[in-house]
Specification:
The structure holds two protein chains of two kinds.
Chain A (H helix, E strand, L loop, with lengths): L4 E8 L18 E2 L15 H4 L4 H16 L7 E5 L5 H13 L7 H5 L5 H10 L4 E5 L5 H14 L5 E8 L3 H9 L8 E2 L16 E8 L8 E11 L2 H14 L9 E4 L9 H7 L7 E4 L1 H4 L6 H14 L18 E8 L2 E9 L2
Parallel strand pairs in A: 3-4, 3-5, 9-10, 9-11
Antiparallel strand pairs in A: 1-7, 1-8, 2-6, 5-7, 8-12, 11-12
Chain B lengths: L1 H14 L25 H15 L6 H7 L3 H11 L3
Helix pairs in contact in B: 1-4
Classes of the chains: A alpha/beta, B mainly alpha.
Protein name (chain B): Acyl carrier protein
Pfam families (chain B): PP-binding
Organism (chain B): Arenibacter echinorum
Chain lengths: ~350, ~80
């Protein structure tokens, strides 16, 4: 089987990550329970005529993919595979609102056309003229990992050489209002520096687009090798460590081989205990990294974690804003990412320095 | 009639998300499709819905739209003659 490399990245997040030369040097702190992305100037990337019907999520996805393609020095790609939890939720909300407000009359086509979950992958393909495999996975907080598994299989089996993989989710006003009502979003506004120790229920929601060119050909721009990814829709906390140990064993690794653990803690007191199983258990003496205080929680937030892992392995640096201990400061070879949302849809992802 | 033309220009810019175009950049006799404003078939559908919703005009023959949406001038004239609200 072929090895798979992350050859380039493109990230739009609540931090200024769209410039690949920066690595969280400037941190934006929020005092809120919903945080937006820091947007690039979209006009620098998308012609106005093409952009006028694009909602925020589509623009974010298209721009993040353009940044990744440019860094990989590619103008076309064999496949485009995206993951999204809510798809183009803003246009979905707009269309449904129009149905209700106008008593099912006078429905305009644009928001309907743009509201489907695969719109981002479709728009990326249209933009670069890619007629290859185009697929979108919608699977809650393992949406990105589902896309990743598909890409890994195709690249390992040499069915493709370069694949654009990404996770994208935009914030929708009505959807957020519902999540506030059911208290999946914290009722209180909270400073991002205090989020992970907040001791209250719910998360701070965010949005973002993180895209990567994965390839079975290593090149100068390569960030890391992807060793594998495994997902679980349900996993009891009592079974977590045994399953992780088995997964590491499948990859001829053990907990002591992991140089950096990147956890998806979101400050929700009801579910962060999954992470403490790892951080207070076999990874107690491992360098630990967190990121959701910077990105917010969304279905494809783990793609931001993947971005972070790739950057750490390439730069061999851990920005102080994400480190929660200082056990190791250099020589990072293997990164393990663990993520789950509300005790469901767990993922383990392994990256190796290349 | 000039108020209606102004209103149509505002609606077209807002509803079709023509963010980079100012009202005074659209001349009354500019082509809305093709070389003029460059609108396309999806915009035509948006305009048909707008005629129905805002002016009570139902277009049943798509060929009719091609003539009516030629320019702001032609559109305003048609609306003034056929509007029911």
């Amino acid at each position: 089987m072929e090895k798979v490399y992350i050859n380039s990245i493109g990230s739009i997040s609540a931090q200024k990550t769209f410039d690949n030369n920066d690595f969280l040097e400037e941190i934006t702190t929020y005092e809120d329970n919903i945080i937006p992305v820091i947007e690039p100037n979209y006009k620098d990337f998308i012609p106005p005529a093409a952009a006028r019907r694009m909602a925020k999520g589509i623009k974010m996805g298209v721009v993040a993919s353009k940044i990744a393609l440019e860094e990989a020095n590619l103008t076309d790609i064999d496949a485009i595979i995206t993951g999204t939890g809510m798809g183009c939720v803003r246009d979905s909300e707009k269309f449904v609102t129009a149905i209700l407000d106008n008593n099912e009359q006078f429905l305009t086509p644009t928001s309907f056309i743009q509201s489907t979950h695969n719109t981002v992958a479709g728009q990326i393909a249209l933009g670069i003229g890619c007629k290859g495999y185009n697929f979108t996975y919608v699977h809650s907080s393992v949406s990105f990992e589902s896309a990743l598994i598909d890409a890994l299989m195709q690249l390992e089996l040499k069915e493709a050489e370069n694949i654009l993989v990404g996770g994208v989710d935009e914030s929708g006003e009505h959807t957020n209002a519902i999540h506030k009502l059911i208290q999946h979003i914290k009722p209180e506004k909270i400073n991002s520096n205090e989020l992970l120790n907040s001791k209250t229920a719910g998360a701070v929601f965010g949005e973002g687009a993180n895209f990567f060119v994965l390839s079975n050909k290593k090149q100068d721009s390569s960030y890391a090798q992807v060793l594998g990814v495994k997902t679980f829709n349900t996993l009891a906390i009592s079974d977590l460590l045994a399953n992780l140990e088995a997964y590491l064993k499948e990859n001829n690794l053990s907990a002591t081989d992991i140089d950096v653990l990147i956890s998806g803690n979101n400050g929700d007191i009801d579910y962060d205990n999954y992470y403490t199983e790892l951080t207070n258990g076999p990874f107690k003496n491992t360098q630990q990294v967190v990121y959701k205080h910077l990105s917010g929680e969304f279905n494809t937030a783990s793609a931001f974690g993947f971005w972070l892992g790739a950057k750490i392995l390439k730069t061999q640096q851990i920005p102080s804003a994400v480190a929660i201990n200082t056990i190791k400061t250099k020589g990072f070879e293997i990164v393990l990412l663990y993520n789950q949302y509300r005790g469901k849809n767990h993922s383990f992802t392994l990256l190796r320095r290349c | 009639m000039s108020d209606l033309k102004q209103e149509l220009k505002e609606k077209i810019i807002t509803q079709l998300n023509l963010e980079d175009i100012a009202i005074d950049e659209i001349a009354d006799d500019d082509s809305l499709f093709g070389d003029g404003l460059g609108l396309d078939s999806i915009d035509a559908l948006e305009l048909i819905v707008m005629l129905d919703k805002d002016y009570g005009i139902k277009l049943t023959d798509p060929k009719e739209g091609k003539k009516i949406f030629e320019s702001i001038e032609v559109m305003a004239k048609y609306i003034a003659e056929h509007r029911t609200k």
